[in-house]
């Protein structure tokens, strides 16, 4: 490995927090962003089959334990965090539409959203307050966190599954799908009715 790759390896190993390409370039002095990206790709390939991996989460890089070895480092049984249907819906809306306000979440869901639901997601570390919308009333807006990406093994929000993928895995409620199909059929005018209208 060349000197830049070794320097980046040392910097990430010693860093307390994940680092972005721009931070690494600045830290290393005269390195360009393009050279840092190339070195990161080389380093990630080097660690691909090792006990630790170099991964990118939300455009920031860090080392983490290889997924197949994580069980060796756990000393306590993990508590399974089960989200209510409401919390799951709110998390999905935030992930796909962020940054989004509570009123916008309620508009998409069609029902009121309890403040407790957002609190649960923020306590889990998956949702954060991302500022305020610059409109009258300046409502708080919410977004997902790097911990959300890390928990679900996503590099960025671009890796979120699409509707077709969600249907294929059975994560979409078939009752909701059937209702959507029924509503679509009711709103379509039969061809014979269209012909009758044109003859009138």
UniProtKB/TrEMBL annotation:
Protein name: SMC-Scp complex subunit ScpB
HPt domain span: 1-87
Pfam families per UniProt: SMC_ScpB
Residues recorded with modification Phosphohistidine: 26
Lineage: Bacteria, Pseudomonadati, Pseudomonadota, Alphaproteobacteria, Sphingomonadales
NCBIfam families: SMC-Scp complex subunit ScpB (TIGR00281)
Organism superkingdom: Bacteria
GO biological process: cell division; chromosome separation; phosphorelay signal transduction system
Keyword tags: Cell cycle, Cell division, Chromosome partition, Cytoplasm, Phosphoprotein
InterPro entries noted in UniProt: ScpB_csome_segregation, Sig_transdc_His_kin_Hpt_dom, WH-like_DNA-bd_sf, WH_DNA-bd_sf
Keyword NADP: no
